[in-house]
């Protein structure tokens, strides 16, 4: 057996111990720093990834750039995602002048927020950030020059709260704030150039002022489609990456560690392992695989229970309707955009579900005496919420079996939710009752 992996681990362990001893930090903190330093990448690795196919859902994904494309021609700084650090936040007031129109004020706030996906530190490189913008505030901080806006324009003040995984040293935090102010000023001026005396001006905000504003005002924040997961969670950075994702083309991705993902059916698809950002840039927006919302799950179970012996048929019709709609979208767009099997394409539950839908769905759709229209509508709406393009994707077949089994256990079993004809379909029962206390057992 090769000894190379052992030597690599020994070197890494020695480096962790050295760092912990020299800096007086815990072993875990030193481990994160060492692993983060291994995460640095040359500029050549950050060539803007190209989205696959025609992206019809969000104009910010295009052949030139995406929300996950780093600033062109700029190298990443060491540990650009801050994997070695907790989240740090700052706050400052920003006064600027824009046309006195509500929609323009809204757009400039969005521009400031969107500019805070990446910050660039001159001579160092880019790093990942996010920001919230509150306001306009009821009281405007005047320009120190005393300048007044021209007719048709208004001077406003907002609170900008940038946050990033960065070092906690005073010099680092001050540099972070400078980077944020520079990005915010540029975002405003790119949209509304003004004379020098009306250029955006910033003022420090003490913690009490910042907290008071945040308590009273709703923020403008980065859309879930553009937010990096390490900034959506305050825990350790590598633990913030979702375990499973579904991309826009309905392919599942499994987290394999340190922000890297492997696609389902990798051999058939021929796709390499990718970082989160590469998956997001090429095939975003990404949805995180999550269980059903508990409150909606209760409504789902209630709809099944209310349908009685027509529940199984109503569910198959709802699935058939949605599968048919998604197929039409595919024919129109030329690429898969929604799916009932994403994230679990090869599971026996998904294969069984789609086989039952193909076999019985269309025929049952024409037999109104075997279904309940209200149940079909309610079940379809919930399934569409599970599988449409949104922040979360819920794997269908496995969760349907859980909820159907729960409904059956509360109403008298399989015979209480399926009509006599469907009761005789063993494969349907095996799937839908697979989580029941009375689930079928092999002989």
Give the topology.
Layout: H1 4-23, H2 27-37, E1 87-89, E2 92-99, H3 102-115, E3 118-121, E4 125-128, E5 130-134, E6 153-165, H4 170-191, E7 201-204, H5 207-216, E8 219-221, H6 237-240, E9 244-246, E10 252-257, E11 260-263, H7 266-269, E12 274-275, H8 276-283, E13 287-289, H9 294-307, H10 311-333, H11 348-365, H12 373-387, E14 392-393, H13 396-411, H14 414-417, H15 420-423, H16 426-432
Parallel strand pairs: 13-14
Antiparallel strand pairs: 1-6, 2-6, 2-7, 3-4, 5-6, 5-8, 9-10, 9-13, 10-11, 11-12
How would you describe what is shown here?
With 443 residues, the chain is α+β, with helices and mostly antiparallel strands. Among the domains are: 159 residues, no CATH class; 139 residues, no CATH class. It is built from 16 helices and 14 strands. The strands form three sheets. Strands 1, 2, 5, 6, 7 and 8 form a six-stranded antiparallel β-sheet that branches. A six-stranded mixed β-sheet has the order 12-11-10-9-13-14. Strand 9 and strand 10 form a beta hairpin. 38% of the residues are buried.
Sum up the structure in keywords:
six-stranded antiparallel sheet, alpha+beta, six-stranded mixed sheet, disordered N terminus, 44% helix, single chain, elongated, 443 residues, 16 helices
Question: TL;DR?
Answer:
44% of the residues lie in helices and 14% in strands. The protein has 16 helices and 14 strands. Strands 1, 2, 5, 6, 7 and 8 form a six-stranded antiparallel sheet that branches. Strands 12-11-10-9-13-14 form a six-stranded mixed sheet. Strands 3-4 form a two-stranded antiparallel ribbon.
């Amino acid at each position: 057996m090769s000894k190379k992996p052992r030597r690599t681990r020994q070197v890494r362990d020695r480096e962790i111990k050295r760092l912990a001893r020299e800096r007086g930090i815990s072993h875990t903190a030193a481990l994160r720093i060492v692993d983060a330093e291994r995460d640095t990448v040359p500029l050549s690795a950050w060539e803007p990834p190209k989205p696959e196919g025609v992206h019809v859902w969000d104009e910010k994904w295009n052949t030139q750039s995406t929300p996950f494309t780093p600033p062109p021609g700029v190298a990443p700084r060491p540990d650009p995602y801050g994997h070695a650090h907790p989240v740090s936040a700052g706050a400052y007031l920003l006064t600027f002048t824009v046309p006195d129109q509500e929609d323009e004020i809204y757009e400039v706030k969005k521009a400031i927020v969107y500019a805070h996906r990446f910050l660039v530190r001159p001579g160092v490189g880019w790093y990942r950030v996010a920001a919230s913008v509150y306001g306009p505030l009821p009281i405007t901080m005047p320009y120190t020059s005393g300048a007044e806006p021209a007719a048709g324009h208004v001077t406003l003040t907002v609170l900008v709260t940038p946050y990033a995984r960065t070092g906690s040293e005073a010099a680092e935090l001050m540099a972070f704030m400078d980077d944020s102010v520079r990005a915010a000023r540029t975002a405003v001026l790119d949209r509304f150039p003004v004379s020098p005396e009306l250029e955006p001006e910033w003022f420090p905000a003490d913690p009490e002022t910042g907290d008071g504003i945040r308590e009273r005002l709703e923020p403008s924040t980065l859309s879930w489609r553009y937010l990096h997961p390490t900034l959506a969670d305050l825990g350790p950075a590598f633990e913030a990456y979702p375990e499973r994702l579904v991309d826009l083309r309905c392919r599942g991705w499994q987290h394999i560690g340190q922000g890297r993902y492997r696609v389902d059916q990798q051999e058939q698809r021929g796709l390499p392992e990718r970082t989160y950002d590469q998956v997001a840039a090429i095939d975003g927006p990404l949805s995180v695989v999550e269980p059903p919302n508990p409150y909606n799950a209760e409504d789902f179970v209630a709809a099944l229970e209310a349908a009685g012996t027509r529940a199984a048929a109503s569910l198959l019709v709802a699935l058939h309707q949605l599968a048919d709609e998604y197929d039409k979208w595919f024919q129109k767009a030329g690429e898969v955009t929604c799916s009932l099997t994403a994230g679990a394409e090869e599971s026996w539950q998904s294969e069984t579900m789609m086989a039952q839908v193909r076999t019985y769905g269309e025929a049952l759709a024409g037999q109104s005496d075997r279904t309940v229209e209200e149940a079909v509508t309610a079940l379809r709406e919930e399934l569409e919420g599970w599988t449409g393009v949104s922040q979360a994707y819920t794997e269908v077949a496995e969760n349907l079996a859980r909820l159907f089994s729960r409904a059956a256990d509360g109403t008298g079993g399989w015979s209480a939710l399926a009509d006599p004809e469907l009761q005789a379909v063993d494969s349907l029962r095996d799937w839908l009752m697979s989580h029941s206390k009375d689930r079928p057992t092999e002989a």
